[in-house]
Amino acid sequence: MILTPRQLVQKADFYRQLGQMTEVGLTLQLALETALKHAQSGQMKRALTRVIESIHQGSSFGEALLAQGRWMPAFDIALLGAGEQSGRLPACFLKLAGYYDDRARLLRRVLASLAYPIFLVHIAALVFPIGALQNLVTQGAIGYFLLTKILILGPIYLTAGAIAYYSQSDRSEFVRRLLDRVLDLTPVVGSSRRSMALSRFCLALEALINAGVETIHAFELSAVASGSFRLQNASRDFRSQLESGVPPSQMLDQAGIFPTEFLQQYHSAELSGKIDETLVRMHKYYEDQGARQSHLAVVLGGGIIFGVVIITIAWQVIQFWLGYFNQINQVIP
Questions:
Q1: What is the distance between the terminal CA atoms of the chain, rounded to a whole angstrom?
Q2: What is the rounded distance in angstroms from the CA atom of residue 329 to the CA atom of residue 288?
Q3: pLDDT tens column, 251-290
Q4: How far apart are CA 234 and CA 254, in angstroms?
Q5: What is the pLDDT of residues 170-185, one digit of tens each?
Q6: Which end of the chain has a smaller Cβ tally under 10 Å, C or N?
Q7: What is this structure's pTM?
Q8: Which residues of 115-132 are buried (b: 16+ CB within 10 A; e: fewer)?
Q9: How far is residue 85's CA from residue 117's CA, in Å, rounded to a whole number?
């Protein structure tokens, strides 16, 4: 689903509240009931009510979450289910709180960077074509002015809406794969997406392994949590390779999609037994790298839009003066 920074912060607060309550000794059931009282959305209240009822009936926390369908991402369910089994549920709640805080912070940064290019597009759409603006001022042609703006901004809004709609996880996989492929081939944007996918992969893998999830399942879920179809495609061979005795570092190398520095770091961590520390460090590294690349993509996009606007203004000015001199030449014999 498409989430706003506010919704991500609400999820982080929800997990943080559960983590703090269970950490000080409250039972899971009591913590969930307290969270239900403070739930801010009807959907969350209904889901929590059903989860509490399932636990009352003897289900485990993980089973109760699975029974709610798509209310919670598969990564969250797997991490919390494993945390329940390993006795690390408070730590898993707090891990998810930090994860959604990071996502909200990154999304705010991206939206703030996009504000200027979006502003330029709307300013250009309001000014051009100059004739419509002139008719609005001199003749009061409001209908014609609004029609030109709809014809300019309408396709832009429809395209952005279609991309947002088909990017959701419950839409056509073919369309989402096509969009993913196009964006990955876009300069700067593609590298930013790959960095962010690796960041999510590292975070998910570290959290799942530490929560006690089986290694094979942890790699598969981490690929899903990354949001990258390239990683998900590669993960189809993970189970067979790991079951045949292939070390994880060699398996990742054979996938052919991981950068060299990632493979070197993971191989060293595998030999030293410090995989969790290395994954945390690589998560931060790729998150920072992805954020820088996202900012660069927005700056370049804004520069291109600004250049197009300037060239269009110059062309309109030239056209105006050419028309003016042509009128003078027609009047003067």
A1: 69
A2: 61
A3: 999 988 899 999 999 999 999 988 989 998 998 899 889 8
A4: 9
A5: 555 666 677 777 777 7
A6: C
A7: 0.70
A8: eebeebbeebeeebeeeb
A9: 48
